[in-house]
Amino acid sequence: MIVCYLGVALIPLLIDPRACDCNIFIQEKMTQDIEMKEQQVPAAPSNSVSSTTPVLQHLKEIAALIETGAYAREVRRILRAVRLTIALRRKLKASVVSSFLNVALAPGSEAHTRLSSYLPKDDENDMEVDTASSASQTTVKHSPELEIYCYLLVLIFLIDQKKYSEAKACSSASIARLKNLNRRTVDVLASRLYFYYSLSYELTGDLSEIRGNLLSLHRVATLRHDELGQETLLNLLLRNYLHYNLYDQAEKLRSKAPRFEAHSNQQFCRYLFYLGKIRTIQLEYTDAKESLLQAARKAPVAALGFRVQCNKWAVIVRLLLGEIPERTVFMQKGMEKALRPYFELTNAVRIGDLELFKSVAEKFSSTFSSDRTNNLIVRLRHNVIRTGLRNISISYSRISLADVAKKLRLDSPNPIADAESIVSKAIRDGAIDATLDHANGWMVSKETGDIYSTNEPQLAFNSRIAFCLNMHNEAVRALRFPPNSHKEKESAEKRRERQQQEQELAKHIAEEDDDDF
Amino acid sequence: MNRRWRREQGEEANTKENNTDRSFKFVKGMDPKLTEVSQLFERFKAALVRNDFDTCSKLLSQLKILLIEFKSLPPLFGETPNAVQELTIARDIYEHAVVLSVKMEDQDAFERDFFQLKPYYTDVGGRLPQSPQEYPILGLNLLRLLVQNRIAEFHTELELLSGNALENPCIKHAVELEQSFMEGAYNRVLSARQTVPHETYVYFMDLLARTVRDEIAGCSEKAYDSLTVKDARQMLLISSDQELFDYIKEEHPEWEVKNGLVVFQKAKESAPCKEIPSLQLINQTLSYARELERIV
Q1: What number is the ipTM of this complex?
Q2: Does the distance separating the beta carbons of A454 and B270 come in below 8 Å?
Q3: To probe the interface with A, which of B177, B288, B290 has the most A CB atoms within 10 Å?
Q4: Which one in A39, A142, A267, B113 has a CA-CA gap of 20 to 30 Å to A368?
C-alpha cells in the first residue's frame, strides 16, 4: 500500500529529473530580482550626476554597492555587484572603463596608472568627464575591494576585446596584489579574478605556466578558510591538468583537496564534469555516469556548450556501460548537430555491427580527436562485439562458431578460435547465457527462464524506489538559504510581516493538499 | 662573481655554432662531477652488456647518488650552464636502469626507475632532443601495467600519448594487446609474442602468457561442460598430459578428470526463488515508511 502511494507520488520527479534543479534556479533568479529592486534605493540620490553615460552611471552604483558591502562586511552585496557587472559586460567601452577608473581610483595612484596603461586610448570626448569627476572624488578614501573590483572590470573588458596579452599582464598584476590582501569581503572578487586569470592564460595557450601559482593560491585560500576561492581554484587546477591530459595528477589532487558543501552551483557543475572525466578514463564508469549526468542536469540552461560536452561524455560512458542512450538525449534543443557523430556511434553500437562502427569512427575521427574522446571510442569496440554476440545468442538456439565469426565480421587469421575465446569470455562475464561445445564447434544458447519467478523484479523495483527517495533527499539538501540569515537582526515589524507571509504560505499549501486528495 | 660575468659576456659574443663547442670544453675543463658520472656510466654500460647484474646495480646506486648533486635535474630544474648535458646523461642513465630492471626481472625496480625517468620525457621534453628509447620504454611500461592488471593506470598513461606516439609500433603493440585481452581474443595475445618490437618485451610477454592461461582456464570453466584432455591441453597451452594434471591440481582442484575428459564443476545455477526473503522485505518496507514520514 505504502509502496503504491510512493510510486505515484514520485513519478513526476522521475519523468523530469530536472524539475528540482529548476526550482533552485528559479529561486536564485527570484532573489536576484529582489536584490535588483533593493539596489535602486542607494542609487537614487546619486542620480543627479547623470551627465555621463548610463553605463558609467551603473558602474558607479556598483561601486557604491561594493563600498557599502566592504564597510558593512556583507559578502552578499559584493556578490550582487559582481552579478550586475556581468550583466553590463556587453556594453563596456574603453572610454567608460577609463572614466570609471578615474572615479574609483585616485588618479596618480599605482593601481590607477597601471590599469589605465592596459586600456586603449582613443576617445577624446571623455577627457572633460575625467577631470570633472576626479576633482570631486579625490578626497574619498577607497577600499581595497574597489581596487580589486577595478582589476576585475578591466580584465573582463580586455578579454571581451580579445586583447589577450594585456589581459595576461593585468591578471598577473591583480594576482600579485591579491596576495597582500586578507579580507573576507575580497574573497568573492578574488575567486572571479582567479577564473579570468586562468582564462586569459588558456586563451593564449600558456596554461601550464600558471600551475604553480594556482597551487600556491589554493594553499593560501585553504589556510584562510576561503571556501569559494578553494572551490574555484580546485576547478581551475583540474582544468589545467586535464588540458594536458594529466589525469593521474588531477585525480591525486582531487582526492586530497579538502571538500565541503558547494558554495557556487556553477563551480559545482564544473567539478562534477571534471570528476566524471577522470573517472571515465580510470574505468569507473558507473560513478562517471552519475557525475556527468548530474553536471549536465545542474548546469544552467544558458551554458549550452558545457551541457553539450557533458552529454557527449555521458553518451560514451553509457555506451561503455552497455546501455543505449535514448533518442531524446540526442534531440535536445540546440544540441542535435553537435551530438550527431555520437548519435551515429550509438547506432553502430546498438546494432552491434563492427564494420559500421569502424566506418563511423573513421568518418568523424576529427571530431572525436578534437573532443579528445578517441581513446574512449577505441575502447567501445569491445562493446560492439558484445552487443552483436548478445543479438546472435538471442536469435539462435544453436549456431556454429564459424557463423558467429562471420556474423561478427571478425577479420583475423583464425576467426573460429577467436570467436570461441570471445564467446567464452562473454559467458564468464555474464553477457550471454550459453554453453560451448568444443567437439562440434557449436554455441548453444540456454533457454531463458521466467524472470518473474526470481527475485529480480523485486530488486529492480527496490532500486527504483531508492533512486526516487534519494532524489528527494538530494533536492531538499540542495535548497539554498542565504548564509548567516539566522544572525541577521530583524525588526519587530519585519518579523510580523514574515510570520504573516509564512502563515499564508502554509494555508496555501494546506489547501493545495486538500485539492490533491 | 667577476668570472661569471665575463663568461656570460663571452658567451654572448660567441656565435651560435661554436657556442656548443665551447660549453663542451667548459664541461671537460670545469666540471669534474660530470666527467666522473660519464666515466662511471661507461663502466655501467659495459657491465650491462656483459649481463653482470651485481656490478650493474652497485654502479647504478653510485650513479644515482652522484646525480642528486646536479641542480638542473628534476625536481629542482635549476638553470645551470651545462643543464642540457646533465639532463641528457641523467635521462640516459635512467633509461638503462629501466632496461636493467627488466633484465633482472624486478618489477618494483622497474616501476621506481620508470617514475624517475618520466619527468625527463614530460617536463623537459622540449629542451632535449627526443630519445630513441622513449617509445620502447613507454610501451614497456604499458605492458607492465597490463601484466599487473592495472588497467585504469594503463588508460591514464595512454591519454598522455600524442597521436604520433600511438602510431609507433612499440606503443601500438601494447595497445592492441590490451584490446585483444579485453575482447577475449587470447590466441591473438599469445601470437603477439612472436612479433615483439623490442627484445626487452619478451619478459613481460611471458608473464602475460601466464595471466592469459589463467584467464582461459577461468572462462572455459564457465563456458564448457567438459573438454577432452587433448583439447584442454591445447587450449591452455600445456605440452604434456602430466603438466596439465599438475596444473589442475594446483590451480583448480575442483575440476575432475575422468575417461579422458576434464569435467568442470558448474557453479550452482540461480534456481527460481521459492522462498520469499521476508526479513529483507520487511527491512526495505520499513525504510520506505521512514523516508515517507520525512517527506509528508
Answers
A1: 0.75
A2: yes
A3: B288
A4: A267
